[in-house]
Specification:
By secondary structure, this protein is of the alpha/beta class. Helix content is 37%, strand content 25%.
Length: 416
């Protein structure tokens, strides 16, 4: 079986020349004895182009048709890379998700991989071929295509690595690795050589866009290391450790500062609270595949009911539909604020380090900003602040916790 599964993002495949360069990267690591598996995303901005085309033709495209449409982006990328590999004299075959045996359950646009039949993959690998698989999609066993939602191609690659027994999964992207903060916001951010899978999952959920939390969690559950590196860079990148041997107390409490500017805060109210109301609301959101964060309840000793939570901006239309159903059925009213952002400290043992939360809030105070919501776990402290204050807060916190390149050099000099 392949030593590693390689996944290439859309920016790495955006032009014919880049596809040729990716073919060269794949060729260098290909083993005729073991075969190779490559997973691809749609090229460049192809997914957005397809979504825009659908929006021009219909105000509310059916989710089933959107899945049929969006899956073509990955399929085209896979076929084009296979063509480029053939041009180099390498045996390659492109497979859609269903052709690769990927079985998916759940709703259109938010499917989850439930099983993988590896017989076709193993047969192609046995012939020494490079198998190029369309990420982001699978079949439901009844002839329907279901896409996996955000992070779907990463999840496809990790799932294939796990089921094929690969030693690692390589995510090739347009950045050289996992940074301590978004380098577009914090110029002094540095690439982490390694990061624990649990910490990386929190970073991803908190807004780090390089890899989705569901893919990281899947890798960790299968003791699988994931390497994130630049497609056309010689740098080693970042290894996300699926099996960590480090004791938490040997690590610094804060690993990175993550942020998310594509969220919304919802506040649901009712003057007629009843037992199970919160569960009813959360169940309705779950049916619509809307993940929530920073859940809180208000006025526990007063009349009525208040529940607040954060949700991803990408799922806001689905959330509004679910909340409208809840309002009609249960008599609730919901206010949604989209002019907010989430900033998070991500690390280890944060519940045992209350000074980290105190320092975070002190930094916000110095910036003249107040957090409207605060949430703490052992791996993450998140705050909700006005959207326009997010960049300043991220920079200030990155400096406060000494995460930059200059800080690392100073620490090295001190310990040398």
């Amino acid at each position: 079986m392949p030593a590693a599964i390689q996944k290439f993002g859309g920016s790495s495949l955006a032009t014919p020349e880049k596809i040729r360069q990716v073919a060269e990267v794949v060729a260098r690591s290909h083993s005729a004895e073991r075969g190779s598996v490559v997973v691809v995303s749609a090229r460049g901005e192809e997914t957005d182009v397809l979504l825009s085309a659908a929006a021009e033709l219909g105000a509310a495209p059916p989710p089933r048709e959107l899945d049929q449409l969006l899956a073509t982006g990955e399929n085209a990328a896979a076929a084009l890379l296979a063509v480029a590999l053939h041009d180099r004299g390498l045996p390659a075959v492109s497979l859609t998700g269903p052709q690769a045996g990927i079985r998916v359950s759940g709703t259109h646009g938010a499917g989850m991989i439930s099983a993988i039949d590896t017989s076709r993959l193993r047969a192609e690998l046995g012939r020494g071929r490079i198998v190029v698989v369309s990420g982001f999609q699978g079949g439901d066993g009844r002839g329907e295509v279901i896409t996996l939602g955000r992070g779907g191609s990463d999840t496809t690659a990790v799932a294939l690595a796990a089921v094929l027994g690969a030693r690692a999964c390589e995510i090739h992207t347009d950045v050289p690795g996992i940074y301590t903060a978004d380098p577009r916001v914090v110029p002094e951010a540095r690439v982490l050589p390694t990061v624990d899978a649990a910490v990386m999952a929190e970073m991803a959920f908190a807004g780090a866009r390089v890899m989705h939390s569901r893919a990281v969690e899947l890798a960790a559950s299968n003791d699988l290391d994931v390497v994130v590196r630049g497609t056309f860079s010689a740098e080693p990148g970042t290894t996300i450790l699926g099996r960590s041997a480090d004791m938490l107390e040997t690590q610094g409490p804060v690993t990175a500062v993550a942020h998310d500017m594509n969220i919304a805060m919802a506040l649901t109210r009712s003057d007629h609270a009843h037992d199970g109301l919160a569960a009813d609301i959360l169940t309705e959101l779950a049916r619509s595949a809307v993940p929530i964060d920073l859940l809180s309840f208000g006025a526990p000793d007063g009349p009525g009911f208040r529940m607040g939570f954060a949700l991803p901006g990408s799922r806001l239309p689905a959330a509004r539909e679910a909340l409208d159903r809840i309002s009609a059925r249960l008599g609730c009213a919901t206010e949604v604020d989209e002019k907010v952002g989430k900033v998070s400290l991500v690390g280890v043992g944060l519940l045992n380090r209350p000074d980290c939360t105190a320092r975070l809030l002190a930094v916000l105070a110095r910036l003249g900003t107040t957090a409207s919501w605060v949430s703490s776990t052992n791996l993450r402290v998140s705050v909700i602040i006005p959207l326009d204050r997010v960049p300043d807060a991220v920079n200030a916190l990155h400096q406060e916790f000494g995460l930059g390149r200059d800080d690392l050099e100073a620490q090295t000099l001190v310990t040398a």
